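hey so i finally got around to running the thing on that chain from the lab meeting. sorry it took forever, my laptop kept dying and i had to restart like 3 times. anyway pasting the input first so we r on the same page abt which one it is
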Amino acid sequence: MKSSRFTYFKRLFLFCMLIGFIPVIALGYFSYAKSSQLLLDKAYRGDREFVEQTQLRIEQKLKMVDNAQVQLINSSLVIDAMEQELGREDYQSYDKLMQSLYRLQLYEYGLTDVYLVNFEKNWILSSGGKEPLRDSGLNAVFMEYADRGKPFFWSLLRSPLVNEAAPRLWNMASVKTIPINTVHPLGLLVAVLPSQEIGKMIPKDSESGDMFVLDDRYRIIAARNSEWIGQDLSGEPNMAAIRQAEAEAGQFQSDDDKYGITFRKSAYNGWTYISKTNISDITKESKAIGWVTLTICLIVLLLVLAASLVGTRRLYSPIRKLYELVPAPDMRGSSAKRDELYWIEKNVHTLMGKESRMREQAQNFFAHRLLQGATRAQEIAARLESGELSDWKRMRVLCIRIDTLEGTNYTERDRDLLMFAINNMAGEIVPRKIRLNPIVLGDFQATILGDHHEPAEDLKHEAREWAEQIQRSVDEYLHLKISAGISSPFPKWTDAPRGFEEAKEALSYSVRLGRQSVLFLEDIHLEVVDSPVTYPQQIVQELFDHIKLLEEERCFELLEEFLAFITRKAISQQEFQMLLIRLLADLMRFAQEQGGNLYDMVPQDNKSVAGEILALKSAREIASWLQSTIVRPLMIFIDQRREMVHTKISDQMLAIIHQEYDGPLTLESCAAKLNYHPEYISRVFRKETGFAFSDYLSRHRLQIAKQLLLETNMTITEISEKLLYNKPQNFIRYFRKLEGITPKQYRELSRTKKQDEPEVRQTAGENQ
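ok and heres what got predicted. didnt touch it at all, straight out
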């Protein structure tokens, strides 16, 4: 294997497992959750029913006690007793009242005691008999009941209140005022019901949790566990939720989610009936269901795992075979997320890219051979039959060439890259359905255009539009000026080479028509007329004259004038080129007349001068080329040749002066000896030496005179006669003018210096 890491196999295996695992796990979870919720709802529903039944049972008994109290209070016996002292004289009323109180304490009601209180007469009747109210231990309790201002209520009461040594029990006192429904009672009828009696009405064997009853002050008045009775739960957090609840009944979970609380509020006496159930007790049964569900799910998951492994191997088998066919990938530095499909896809894309590039190269190669005439008719027919070539009715060749690189940021080294960029632009702009692959042939970019339209003008119009669009794009992105030449239409693919030559021929006319042109060969041929071609000989002759005068700017103007003259003529490109060749021949002849050879002056660079001028693309380029390549070197040659002639004339004149200074030498005699005009040699001599002929001759004779004064004993008169001075005074005057002293003084000073030099040397020797 190429790699031990089968990423896609792992992912496929994981995917198959997830397909099986997720439904099984979800089904198990939801079945367990649903069963648990059903059990919890069932328990809550049972708690609600249990609390409601308990409330009804307790309130039924309380209402029985309430009714018995009402009947007794409304009896004439009690009404009359409120006005009696119940002394000895009232023993009959006393006996009847005691019997009535005993009847209330029947087993059916469960009352432990009944108190009849008279506040005005200050007495209390109970099962223990009569006693003064003020002396009773219950006096404070009964007075507090009377001050509540309620005609009826239940109150938590601990008894006995008199004998503190006896065990104290919690009771509920049913208090009613006498008369009924008054807030300023004359007396009270208090029935004492033990809390244990109420607790008996709460079932002991219920599946519900703890059950207890709270009074209006949230104190426990009855519960299964009698030890809870009397506890104040008003500060408990759960009581706050019950207190704030607006509904008469409800259920909620405690803050720690351990208990479910069911409550009912009684509109009869303000009591609250509460059931507190441990949730863990409720969910015991659901946990058993959960374990069964988990076991079943694990078994199913194992089966899914085995099926996933087998299925994954079968699904992965074709992928593995493909993966083994592709070249071994380089795993170094690759991401772990890259699997077998990634490498297969990458290699397929690579192969497709190579195939696409090879197809593109093959099409480009075919276009090259087609335009160069190297394609056989059988090959073209085969490509037409296979659909590789379109069976266009008419075709044209669009040929593009860069006008010039002058004034741009590019050099000749960038030309190939620029042609490649222009070729790409042509391929992007011209739709593929109407063209063959664009190619570059030397300095030309060529594209074969074609369509199925019958009128030839349609293709001509489209070709012009595409050419102009390419020009705009090249100008915008490359900042270059290009020209386009378009051939005449042709119907056969075998005529493509002729179309390419026609496009190049049309493009050659851009030299005369200017830059950034779009030229159709048929339009150019219509403009050419048969007329005699006039060669501008006068301009050429004037050009030669100014070359001799070394006036370069005027020469360039004359070259542009010459090109403007021949470009205005309606002549063919061949005739235009012949005029250029004739001008080149005239310049060569002129160079020979000046004593030189044009081919020696012009740098060849392994190129033909004629071929180079014919390859130029604009009249401006031709003028610049002629100026820099032909005219300027020719001027340099003429100037150098003149410098050599001037130097030779100057040297000859100097030799004559040095040899014939003591004769009757004049400028005319020198000119006669040298066969030049006196004015010409005078100008040449001044240019070369910086002195006029007469000045130089006088200075040379002065140097000879100084030499004769020092080396001979000739007199000044003899020297002046030898040097052809008319008078000695003229010699003396000229000598003094140049040297500042007379000839005699010059001789004396020179001899004195010669005599002093030995003495100076002798003194210097003695000092040493």
